[in-house]
Design a protein that fits this description.
The protein is mostly helical. It has one domain. The protein contains 10 helices and no strands. It is globular. 38% of the residues are buried. It is found in: Membrane. It comes from Mangrovihabitans endophyticus. Keywords: Amino-acid biosynthesis, Cell inner membrane, Cell membrane, Membrane, Sulfate transport, Transmembrane, Transmembrane helix, Transport. This is Membrane protein.
């Protein structure tokens, strides 16, 4: 029993690392087509500017917000009151970061849907195509993406609120809660980013969760890597195309499709003539 548990633990760690490595593989794929990389960064840049303005606003009003949230501590000793306000500020920024990363991804995927469809399609073609592709009208696909994004944002809020409350706890709020936030955020990002390849096969959100859940360690590895990179200033803008490419690899792996490069590349990618080399 002990040896079996050890092997399972080692296997989970390997899968986690493999999943994290898919972000790097995605970066390597999109880097071969600089024009496509730049086009994929454009929607993220637009969304990034909007979210940067929101973050600056939050920081400016953070002292007032924390004072309002900790009004119950107004009559406490100065040291205790200030500590509570600092903890509240950390909790607010942490939850805002979690919700910001998740909603940023949803908004950017909607804004840049044509670009990310192109990137994902090139990755699919490089690794053997999509044998079970389902043709779906663009308007229906967009509608499903919107509904799925709203559901995932609602889930992020559902998890974010208790994490925000736990953030007020001394020590736990500054150690355990950030780890939980990264895990929750990573899982939701993995589900969010794999939307395009799953929808290409006619799979819905519940199918996506089930397939990724069967390889949870790998999915978490990919999602947590993306989540942490997206927290870095400009990380989300620069790495969004790579995240889409890596998510396509994750989806193919979860569905049992080939993720080893084939000898036949995708050729021209249509408008713009972007290519993704197979060498």
């Amino acid at each position: 029993m002990g040896e079996a548990g050890d092997r399972a633990g080692v296997s989970a760690i390997r899968q986690f690392v493999t999943g994290a490595g898919m972000l790097g593989r995605g970066l390597g794929l999109v880097a071969r087509s600089p024009r496509l990389l730049l086009l994929g960064m454009l929607p993220a840049l637009i969304s990034g500017l909007l979210y940067a303005a929101a973050l600056i606003t939050l920081i400016v009003f953070l002292p007032d917000l924390t004072r309002w949230l900790t009004g119950f501590a107004g009559g406490w000793p100065t040291g205790t009151r200030d500590l509570v306000r600092v903890l509240a500020g950390v909790a607010v920024v942490g939850v805002a970061g979690l919700l910001g990363v998740l909603t940023f991804t949803a908004v950017t995927l909607l804004v840049g849907d044509p670009f990310y469809e192109k990137i994902s399609g090139l990755v699919e073609a490089r690794f053997g195509g999509v044998p079970d592709e389902v043709e779906t009208p663009w308007w229906r696909s967009l509608g499903r993406s919107l509904v799925d994004s709203v559901r995932l944002i609602a889930l992020s809020v559902l998890f974010g609120v208790p994490l925000f409350a736990l953030g007020f706890l001394p020590v736990v709020g500054q150690t355990v809660v950030p780890v939980l936030g990264a895990a929750v955020g990573g899982w939701l990002l993995a589900v969010e980013l794999t939307g395009v390849p799953f929808q290409r096969r006619g799979r819905r959100l519940r199918d996506r969760r089930a397939a990724l859940g069967a390889q949870r360690a790998m999915s978490l590895g990919f999602g947590v890597a993306v989540f942490l990179c997206f927290l870095i200033p400009l990380g989300a803008v620069l790495l969004m195309p790579a995240a889409v490419a890596g998510a396509t690899l994750l989806a193919r792996n979860a569905l049992g499709h080939n993720t080893a490069a084939t000898s036949v590349g995708p050729g021209r990618a249509g408008a713009g003539g972007a290519e993704m080399s197979t060498t």
